[in-house]
Amino acid sequence: MKREELETAILKYETPFYVYDLDILTQEMARFRKCLGEQIKICFAMKANPFVVKHMSELADRIEVCSMGEFKICKELGIAPEKLLISGVLKETKDLPEITEYCGTRSVYTAESFQQFQYLAEFSLKQSEEVHIYPRLTSGNQFGVNKEDICQMIRAKADYPMLHIDGIHYFSGTQKKNSKVIMKELNLLDEFFEQLEKEEGFQVEALEYGPGVGVSYFQGKEVPLFEEEGLQEIASLVQNMKWKGTVTLEMGRALSALCGYYVTQIKDAKTNEDINYCIVDGGCHQLNYDGQIRGMYVPKIQVFPEDNDGEEKEWTVCGSLCTFNDVLCSGFKAKDLSIGKFLAFERVGAYSSMEGMALFLSHELPGVVIYSEKDSWQEARKKTDTYNFNMFK
């Protein structure tokens, strides 16, 4: 996003606020498509940023939905059921009628446990409706099931003629910095798919795989896997699998991180024991970079107006919370961070607006602004009070 556009936003909206640039999102999707090739499909994990899910539904092959709230967002936006992968560690039987009424037989469901498998299987039998599922293979945590449980699902499938196991879902974690872990995981999947064919007579048709591509968030901390060469290496690893079927790469952070900015204003500035501090009207409850620890790494930040005057100093940028942990970054080099200036933190298009301690100290929720050259500025959410959520009369 050009500086002039951010300057326009600063004049129009009250800080703190997020800006999501849909044009950047479109450019990033094109970059991923080019690097990964036409054979690999892309699924957007909307938990990374639900504000851009409508736009992403037009760009991605599939949208991963992980909660009833996320499903309701997609339903209200009219996103086609064919686009939805109904995922999530918790699926309750009370929610299935509403989901299936909208999705019919056109969406795909993950099975995170044998109980989830039974819920979906019994629902298909009772309603005489086709249900398409992807059992999730665990990577050694609370998500998904063991290989033996998937084999059990395949055997139990014979009792449910309307139930179809179309593929396998696998995701082990995020912020991966090189391809060695991805190679190991694809080899594991290759072996498992071969085992299923030999021992169960089951041919896996599709793989929904989360590579966990890391994002280059901080100055001097680039992540090779996020760059073109790294993405092309992932594509090569996928294409070299012994198993041949439809592969969809599921990503959230990597696709949307670059489209977001967090804008906050400096409200105070001081020097304590030779350390220069500036205090902004936002804080760590609204800004989250995966891997950041009490501001020890410096993200990409723009200063408005530009700090052209004076001697360059190192600054520690702190938020407005009453906690020692509210350090947004330390060691940020700038000439003048005086009261009234604005800081635009870059690469916050994934998770920042979702993961913070939103209700801590009853501060307001920041506004959310959507930008594109075609539609200009659109206010998705005004700055909103939260104190009423934290009181009992």
What does this structure look like?
- By secondary structure, the protein is an alpha/beta fold.
- The chain folds into two domains: 23-256, Alanine racemase (TIM Barrel), CATH 3.20.20.10; 258-382, Lyase, Ornithine Decarboxylase, Chain A, domain 1 (Beta Barrel), CATH 2.40.37.
- Helices cover 29% and strands 26% of the residues.
- The strands form two sheets. Strands 1, 11, 12, 13, 14, 15, 16, 17 and 18 form a nine-stranded mixed sheet that branches.
- The chain is globular, with a radius of gyration of 23 Å.
Radius of gyration: 23 Å
Shape: globular
Q: Approximately what portion of the residues adopt beta-strand conformation?
A: 25-35%
Helical element count? 11
Number of structurally distinct domains: 2
CATH level-two architecture of the largest domain: Alpha-Beta Barrel
How far apart are the termini? 45 Å
Mean pLDDT: 92
Per CATH, the class of the largest domain reads Alpha Beta
- Range of helix content: 25-40%
Low-pLDDT residue intervals, each spanning 5 or more residues: none
Largest sheet: 9 strands, mixed
* Count of DSSP strands: 18
Q: What is the H/E string?
A: HEHEHEHEHEHEHEEHEHEHEEEEEEHEE
Instruction: Say what the CATH topology of the largest domain is.
Output: TIM Barrel
Derived from helix and strand composition plus strand pairing, the structural class reads alpha/beta
Quick structural gist:
By secondary structure, the protein is of the alpha/beta class.
